């Protein structure tokens, strides 16, 4: 049995996990302070300002933001505590990517789902909701989601005859019709005529997302033009972090924006009660009437998974149920303080089993459960009992719109045992993927992370940076040669997080190499024909390869030729045509992932470190197509070499394992700080002592990498040299 954890503790844990994204620490107490909360929310979504959405967040009521942030944090805690899988979510990268985009979808959907709340309770002209021009004026928007038709979906790369397109068209139709019934003067289910806040929120959110997408496109184009004209290849570049802004340049961002907005639009649609069925039918809302399969949201439908989670968390959110509603009602401060103390420090959540205590057969059970309880071990006040009973009463109707099991309430005896409520989240077995060469899911996660398609749904920022490979490669380069070119000139963004969590970084590297060995074995070891791959590189890397007599880090190549997009921003461009004749560890991403391959146009082949340079690189002339890879500025110094790489070079090394590990742990904080300083300032720090520690840390890390890879290589039959 897992331990009971206070709500305050759970919220603080999740806040701490997000600090690498926001680059700002925040305490639970600050969640209930308007200025700090708004700043944190904007930072989590995007540190670059997010022109439109930042303004919407700034204009939201503090009480609603308290609720949405708490719902967001508790949603992540429940996902991880119950080990819920969201493998079938739509992809942010391409239609075929492996892994999931949970953190991107959940962040935007949950944090923005109540942005339209002010319109529901305000005095607005309801007639304006009936036309596109009226909606644009009412909400101050440019892009009206509700005017989209079937033929518009192709602009988003969405096929209207596929599941994704059909779901969107159904959602848009529901939104239009539900908006009409909500504005009807005749009351139903006890509600007055008003704007629905879910639909209003969807409209302002969609507009902000599309504007952000177009703004990013324009800025990327401008930055590219600036770099063409400037001697500094980093000119015009901008560091973007945050769940939204780090994804805004992805090819499916616009399509995902529409999916997100539709989810928000549907989250507040009430099903018809018996007395309102005729009216619902009159407004073409048959889908929300009893008996319709769409009236009950299910996790079995992949495109409804985020809607289910949002409605589930929106309903059970403790902050809204115990505190926010009272704050919105204008209750006195002493009442609110009492409720806040009760909420944070006298309510606990318990997940039924620790992950380590789970059996594989449990994934076949339909529900995963957790229990919310009043804190035991003390005489409970009447106030506590009343508040908790009221909270349970409000959440008891979950099954009216969600396909789940009804909550189970246990009324405790005062002074002896606490009252509690057990909730159930639907779970369905995940289809297990069988990979070539018995490559494991952990190794797949490592390959996805290096490739830039995310960490296969893994929690935490470590797995969410799309440029993690930049840090991994930089740590394998001598002294400061890589930092001076890659970071200070080209503007790469390595993160100190991968030094602070160096054990996990090393785990990723060993997992990648293990996968490469397995893939080599699956290809029957020795190839009968030579293989040619192509790499767009920098002179600093080429010089280092000559110095080391082979590859020194994981090396990305392509089967399709030289990729112009890879050449962008690189200083002193080098083209490599690499000949591989012997059986070596490698991974062909296209061969491994098939239709699920994210960057199918690149056809990446990933080579390991420490492949021996068999022949001295031979310079050859550039042909017409190869010259097109470079910009005018790059072309002047660009050269091409033919290189033959041989076997993975294994040498037995004597290493004091314990001593190296101790040094890595002792110096990781300073080393991480130095790397962060280089990234943020684009300069090598003047503090020589700290820089020396950083360089020594890299050497220790490299020695441990070599040591581990050599030992793994021997297991897979790579001969010792």
How would you characterize this protein structure?
There is one protein chain. With 721 residues, the chain is α+β, with helices and mostly antiparallel strands. The protein has 2 domains: 308 residues, no CATH class; 280 residues, Toxin ADP-ribosyltransferase, Chain A, domain 1. 46% of the residues lie in helices and 9% in strands. The strands form 3 sheets. The chain has a 5-stranded antiparallel sheet with strand order 1-2-3-5-4. Strands 6, 8, 11, 12 and 13 form a 5-stranded mixed sheet that branches. It has a 3-stranded antiparallel sheet with strand order 7-10-9. About 2% of the residues have low confidence.
Structural class: alpha+beta
Question: Domains counted in the coordinates: how many?
Answer: 2
How many individual β-strands?
Answer: 13
CA-CA gap between termini: 51 Å
Instruction: Please outline the major beta sheet.
Output: 5 strands, antiparallel
Shape: globular
Assembly form of the protein: single chain
Spatial ordering of strands, largest sheet: 1-2-3-5-4
**Unreliable runs:** 94-99, 233-239
Mean pLDDT: 85
Secondary structure tally, helices: 28
Strand content: 5-15%
Task: Break the fold down into its secondary structure elements and pairings.
Blueprint: E1 5-6, H1 7-17, H2 19-22, H3 34-45, H4 51-59, H5 62-81, H6 102-112, H7 117-121, H8 132-139, H9 163-183, H10 197-229, H11 253-266, H12 277-282, H13 305-316, H14 318-328, H15 333-345, E2 347-351, E3 367-374, H16 382-395, E4 408-410, E5 420-426, H17 441-451, H18 468-474, H19 481-487, H20 497-500, H21 502-522, E6 531-538, H22 539-548, E7 555-558, H23 564-567, E8 573-580, E9 587-588, H24 589-593, E10 604-607, E11 611-613, E12 618-620, H25 624-627, H26 632-635, E13 639-648, H27 657-681, H28 688-715
Helix pairs in contact: 1-5, 3-5, 4-10, 5-6, 5-13, 5-14, 6-11, 9-11, 10-11, 14-15, 17-21, 21-28, 27-28
